[in-house]
Amino acid sequence: MGYKIVVADDEPIIRMDICEMLKLAGYDVVGQASNGLEVIEKCKLYKPDLAILDIKMPNLDGLKATKIIMEENLSSAVIILSAYSGEEFIERAKEAGAIGYVVKPITEMGLLAEVGVTITRGIEIRKMKEEIQKVKEEMEKRKLLERAKGVLMSKYNYSENDAYSKIRKLSMDKRCPIQEIAEKILNGNIMVHK
Description:
CATH class of the largest domain: Alpha Beta
Shape: elongated
CATH topology of the largest domain: Rossmann fold
Helix content: 55-70%
Distance between the termini: 60 Å
CATH architecture of the largest domain: 3-Layer(aba) Sandwich
Strand order of the largest sheet: 2-1-3-4-5
Number of helices: 7
Radius of gyration: 25 Å
Number of domains: 2
Strand content: 5-15%
Number of strands: 5
CATH superfamily of the largest domain: Response regulator
Mean pLDDT: 94
């Protein structure tokens, strides 16, 4: 299995029990924390597949810590542990970015089922975010190229095809990425001859 997990609970016995259940199930518990600030530091250090946080912890509660962990991509997923099963607590956990929610007292079967599902969903979400980021980067490169083509078209009366060919040729001649040439054209840092 080999999935990395960080566990945070201010109750040492509960934290120890959770870690033991996870280790016996084949998970790699890479870090433990007793408060919200510690768990953020452990997540920065280990970049786990999953962080399991108690909702009530000193220094920084589990919901605020979850929000930071998810916004900063410090873990693929978070499960909140809580003694509260009310809908408002579940909603607050979802708003903070948690994917899973386990109500105390924790059972091994309940915890492991939620961990398995949450890790899978977290990995899927991370992959989607990575794909979205790649698409955004490609769009930015495309916009840059279009703007550079526009400069060549207006400045030298190139057709769109000629402008693209010129940028591509400069890229090959100078052995650098096409977007770098586009940036240089836009910044006026490259000589272009008709």
